[in-house]
Amino acid sequence: MNVKTKYFLFSLLLLSELVYLFIYTSYNLPIVNFTIVSLFNSIVFVIIWILIKDKFVSRTWLFLIIASGILFRLTLLPANPIASDDIYRYIWDGKVMSNGINPFRYAPADKELNFLHSEMLPSKVNHPEMKTIYPPYSQFIFFLSYKLFGESFLGIKIFLLLSELLTMFLLIALINILKLPSQNIVLYAICPLPIMQFMIDGHIDGTGFPILLLTILLFLNKRKISSSLMMGLSITTKFISGMILPLIWKEEKGKWKIYTVVLPILSILVLYIPFYSGNVFPLESLFQFSSNWIANSSVFSIIFFIVKDNQDARLIALLLFLLSGLILFISKKTFQDKLYLIFFLFLLFSPTVHPWYLTWLALFLPLSFRWSGLIFIVLVNLINILLIDYISQNIWYTFHWLMIIEYLPVIILFVYEIFILKRNNPSKSVQ
Question: How high is the pLDDT of residue 26?
Answer without folding.
Answer: 85
